[in-house]
C-alpha cells in the first residue's frame, strides 16, 4: 500500500549543499511547496561532519576560500552569525622529494624542496619543450599540454604522479580541460610571479566552528517549517511521466512505508548514472557509462602526541604514498577534539571501482596509512587502535577523459528533450569538481532560473559555465 503525499511544485532529490541552497532560495516564493528526498539520515552529502565521543571529523579537508564570489559570501552572511565563521591563517604543505614545502607554492621553498640542481634541470627541460613547440603543435591532452607548458622533467616530477593518484588512469587519456580546472596558469614565468607574490601576503581561509558540516545543518534549520525534508529514502522510481499527474514513489526507511508524491518539477543532485537509470535512458547508455568518478576511502586515525610538522592540510602527489591528502581537524578548530593528548589524522585515499584500493580491508588500509605517516615523518606517535575507522565515498572526483564534454552534453540534451521538467544540479548532477562556495553558487543560480520559470534546456545550457570554475585546493 502506497501512502500518498500532497502534490509539490518542486521535488529535490539529494540534500547536499546545492539542493539545500536551491530550496532555501525557492522557499521565498514557494513556501511549503518544496520536498527534499535524502537517502542518508543526515543532510550535507560530501559536506558533512561526523560527530563522535572522541572528536568531530569532516569528510576530508574542507574550507571556505576568501576568494569566494560576492553572491556566495552574501548567502553565508545571511545564514551564519559573524562569530560562527573562523578566519584562519593557512599552513598547508606539499610533500615532495622528502621535503615539506609551503602550499600554495613559494619560490624559495620550491628551490629548497627539489634542490638547485633539479631546479636547473627542470628549467632546461622547459626550454627544450618550448623550442619543440615552435615546430610541433601540442596534442589536446593533459599530458602533452603540460609537457609543453612546464617541461617533461617537472611534469614527471609532479603532475604525472598527481594525475595517476587522483584519477587512477593514464594521463594521456585525460582531457586538457582538467588543467584549466586545476590551474590558473601553466606558464612558468607566471607561476614564478605568483610564487613571489605569495611571499608578500599571508593566505587565509574561513572555517565553521564545530566542523564544515554546520553549513548544511544550519541551512536545514533555516528552512525548517517551510521545506519538507524526508531522510532515509530508498528505492525511488518515477511513474506516469507522460501524464499531467507525474509521480515519484519511494520507500521511507524511517517510517517503513511506501510513499507516493505527485510533482511538477524534479531537481536531481544525485550522480548522473543513478537518475538516468530511473528514466530508462538506454539510448544514451554509452554517454552515461563514459562519465566516471574516482571515489575516496577516508581513513580516520587517532595517534598519540602532536604532529611533527604543523599544518591543517598536507598534499602527497608521489605514488609511493597511499594517501593523496591528509588533514588535521584540530588545526582548523581546536574544539574538533575533546582532549589534546592525541591527534586525529584524516587520510584521503583515491580509488577506482574494482581496483586494489577499493577492495582492501579497512584494517589493512589503516595500517598502510599509519606506516606512510611515519615514513613521511608527519607523526612519530603510537596508533590508538580502538578508535580508528574508515568510510567509503564512491562519487567524489569526476574523471575528465578526452571526450567527457561531448558525453555530458548528450546526457543534458536527452534530459532536456524528453523530460523538460527535470533539472540536473550540484557536483554529481552536473559532473562538477568544485569548491563548497561554488556549489552554493550553482544552487542559487538554479533557484533564480526556476523562479523565472525557464525550462530545463535553458538551465542545462547555462550550466556549462560552471565548468569554468577554478578549483582551489
- Rough shape? globular
Largest sheet: 7 strands, mixed
Average pLDDT score:
90
What percent of residues are in strands?
Answer: 15-25%
Percentage of residues assigned to helices? 25-40%
Tell me what you see in this structure.
- This protein has helices at about 15-25, 70-80, 105-115, 115-135, 140-150, 150-165, 175-180, 190-200, 215-225, 270-280, 285-290, 330, 355-360, 360-375, 405-420, 425-430, 435-450, 455-460; strands at about 1-15, 35-40, 50, 55-60, 65, 85-90, 90-95, 100-105, 205-210, 230, 235-240, 245-250, 255-270, 295-305, 315, 325, 340-350, 390-400, 420-425.
- With about 475 residues, it is an alpha/beta fold.
- Among the domains are: about 1-45 and about 70-75 and about 210-290 and about 400-470, FAD/NAD(P)-binding domain (3-Layer(bba) Sandwich); about 105-200, no CATH class.
- The strands form four sheets. Strands 1, 2, 10, 11, 12, 13 and 19 form a seven-stranded mixed beta sheet that branches. A seven-stranded mixed beta sheet has the order 8-7-15-16-17-14-18.
- Strand 1 (about 1-15), helix 1 (about 15-25) and strand 2 form a beta-alpha-beta unit.
Provide a brief overview of the structure:
With 473 residues, the protein is α/β, with parallel strands linked by helices.
Give the arrangement of secondary structure elements.
Elements: E1 2-13, H1 17-26, E2 34-38, E3 49-51, E4 56-58, E5 64-65, H2 70-79, E6 85-89, E7 92-96, E8 99-103, H3 107-114, H4 116-133, H5 142-150, H6 152-167, H7 177-182, H8 188-199, E9 204-208, H9 214-223, E10 228-231, E11 233-239, E12 247-252, E13 257-268, H10 272-278, H11 285-289, E14 293-304, E15 313-315, E16 325-327, H12 329-332, E17 342-351, H13 356-359, H14 362-375, E18 389-398, H15 404-418, E19 422-424, H16 426-429, H17 436-451, H18 456-462
Parallel strand pairs: 1-2, 1-13, 2-10, 7-15, 13-19
Antiparallel strand pairs: 3-4, 5-9, 6-9, 7-8, 11-12, 12-13, 14-17, 14-18, 15-16, 16-17
Amino acid at each position: 500500500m502506497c501512502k500518498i503525499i500532497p502534490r509539490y511544485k518542486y521535488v529535490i532529490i539529494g540534500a547536499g549543499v546545492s539542493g539545500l541552497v536551491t530550496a532555501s532560495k525557492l522557499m521565498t516564493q514557494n513556501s511549503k511547496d518544496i520536498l527534499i528526498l535524502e537517502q542518508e539520515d543526515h543532510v550535507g552529502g560530501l559536506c558533512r561532519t561526523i560527530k563522535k565521543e572522541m572528536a568531530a571529523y569532516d569528510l576530508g579537508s574542507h574550507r571556505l576560500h576568501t576568494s569566494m564570489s560576492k553572491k556566495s559570501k552574501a548567502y553565508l552572511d545571511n545564514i551564519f552569525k559573524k562569530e560562527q565563521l573562523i578566519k584562519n591563517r593557512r599552513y598547508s604543505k606539499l610533500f615532495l622529494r622528502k621535503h615539506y614545502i609551503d602550499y600554495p607554492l613559494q619560490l624559495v621553498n620550491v628551490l629548497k624542496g627539489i634542490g638547485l640542481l633539479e631546479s636547473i634541470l627542470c628549467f632546461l627541460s622547459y626550454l627544450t619543450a618550448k623550442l619543440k613547440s615552435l615546430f610541433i603543435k601540442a596534442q589536446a591532452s593533459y599530458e602533452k599540454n603540460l609537457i609543453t607548458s612546464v617541461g617533461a622533467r617537472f611534469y614527471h616530477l609532479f603532475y604525472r604522479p598527481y594525475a595517476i593518484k587522483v584519477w587512477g588512469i593514464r594521463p594521456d587519456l585525460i582531457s586538457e580541460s582538467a588543467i584549466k580546472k586545476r590551474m590558473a596558469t601553466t606558464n612558468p614565468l607566471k607561476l614564478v610571479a605568483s610564487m613571489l607574490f605569495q611571499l608578500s601576503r599571508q593566505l587565509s581561509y574561513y572555517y565553521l566552528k564545530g566542523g564544515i558540516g554546520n553549513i548544511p545543518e544550519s541551512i536545514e534549520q533555516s528552512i525548517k517549517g517551510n521545506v519538507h525534508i524526508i531522510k532515509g529514502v530508498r528505492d525511488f522510481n518515477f511513474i506516469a511521466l507522460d501524464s499531467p499527474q507525474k509521480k515519484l514513489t519511494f520507500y521511507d526507511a524511517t517510517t517503513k512505508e511506501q510513499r507516493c508524491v505527485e510533482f511538477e518539477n524534479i531537481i536531481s543532485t544525485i550522480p548522473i548514472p543513478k537518475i538516468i537509470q530511473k528514466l530508462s535512458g538506454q539510448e544514451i547508455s554509452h554517454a552515461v557509462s563514459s562519465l566516471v568518478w574516482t571515489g575516496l576511502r577516508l581513513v580516520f586515525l587517532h595517534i598519540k602526541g602532536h604532529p611533527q610538522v604543523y599544518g591543517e592540510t598536507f598534499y602527497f602527489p608521489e605514488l609511493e604514498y597511499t594517501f593523496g591528502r591528509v588533514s588535521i581537524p584540530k588545526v582548523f578548530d581546536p574544539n574538533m577534539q575533546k582532549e589534546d593528548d592525541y591527534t586525529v589524522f584524516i587520510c584521503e585515499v583515491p580509488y577506482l571501482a574494482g581496483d586494489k584500493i577499493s577492495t582492501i580491508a579497512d584494517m589493512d588500509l589503516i595500517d598502510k596509512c599509519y606506516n606512510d605517516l611515519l615514513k613521511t615523518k608527519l607523526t612519530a606517535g603510537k596508533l590508538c587502535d580502538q578508535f580508528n575507522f574508515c568510510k567509503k565515498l564512491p562519487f567524489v572526483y569526476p574523471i575528465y577523459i578526452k571526450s567527457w564534454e561531448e558525453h555530458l552534453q548528450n546526457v543534458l540534451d536527452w534530459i532536456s528533450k524528453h523530460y523538460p521538467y527535470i533539472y540536473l544540479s550540484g557536483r554529481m548532477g552536473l559532473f562538477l569538481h568544485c569548491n563548497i562556495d561554488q556549489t552554493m553558487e550553482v544552487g542559487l543560480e538554479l533557484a533564480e532560473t526556476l523562479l523565472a520559470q525557464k525550462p530545463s534546456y535553458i538551465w542545462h545550457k547555462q550550466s556549462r559555465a560552471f565548468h569554468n570554475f577554478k578549483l582551489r585546493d
